[in-house]
Amino acid sequence: MNQRYAWPDERLIKAAQDGDVTSLTTVVMESQPHVRKFALSLCASPQDAEDAAQEALIILYRKIGTLRATGALASWMFRIVRNECLRQVRLLVSRSEEAPAGTEASAEPSAEDAVLHRLEVERIAAAVGSLPRDQRRVLIMRDVQGLPGRTVAHALGLSNAAMKSRLHRARATLRHALAATDPTTVEPLDQFIDPSAGGDSPL
User: Fold this and answer.
1) Is 67 strand, coil or helix?
2) What is the dihedral sign for C-alpha 52, 84, 38, 69?
3) Pairwise pLDDT comparison (119 vs 145), residue with the higher score
4) Is the Cβ–Cβ distance between 52 and 94 less than 8 Å?
5) pLDDT by residue (tens digit) across 16-45?
6) What is d(CA 122, CA 157) in angstroms, rounded to the nearest whole number?
7) Cα separations in angstroms, 124 against 65, 94, 114, 165, 183
8) Tens digits of per-residue pLDDT, 152-167?
């Protein structure tokens, strides 16, 4: 059944790269179902997926001339969507690590600290992005966005117990992935993963 939608053929892509507007429009339209499928599998929520897909299609429209091989359209679009989904996660992780308003103001971070912080966020975001989709969604909604457990369970069509079980697996998988590459990452991760986030009881 998935054969119903095919990627644009290479002649159409070549014509689009050569500036034919009709061909370019057709390439974007025919790529849309695949791009949306990528986004739904990679992003944390349907809204994030929609945003990522739209961004990817805009890039396709504007920058198709940078595609080196006409047969590489699918892999190119996959990378664009993946990067956009990771960008969304990085923003959420970075915001979750900001000090709450009213806390003691700290001195301006040094350039070195700023770089290290950015690398830390990149590492955590990449690890979150590599989680299986069901684990990624529950972890982002619960721990990063701070939604109440019941809200997350309802949004994902799960019982509260099933949501907690999935969240526990996601946290364990994330900790294992980060500890395998750099054990020191687990400590700052504790600031990101707050079992009490959202106002209901922890696991």
Assistant:
1) coil
2) positive
3) 145
4) no
5) 999 999 999 999 999 999 999 888 877 877
6) 30
7) 33, 10, 15, 21, 12
8) 888 889 999 999 999 9
Closest CA to 139 of 161, 176, 181, 172: 172
Token pair, residue 167, equals: 């969240």
Stretch 115-125: mean pLDDT, rounded?
67
Give me the torsion for CA of 187, 189, 190, 191, rounded to 10°: 110
Asked whether 158 and 166 are in contact (CB, 8 A), the reply is yes
> Whole-angstrom Cα distance, residue 85 to residue 89?
6
Who's near 62: CB < 8 A, 6+ residues apart? none
- Residues 146, 197: contact at Cβ < 8 Å? yes
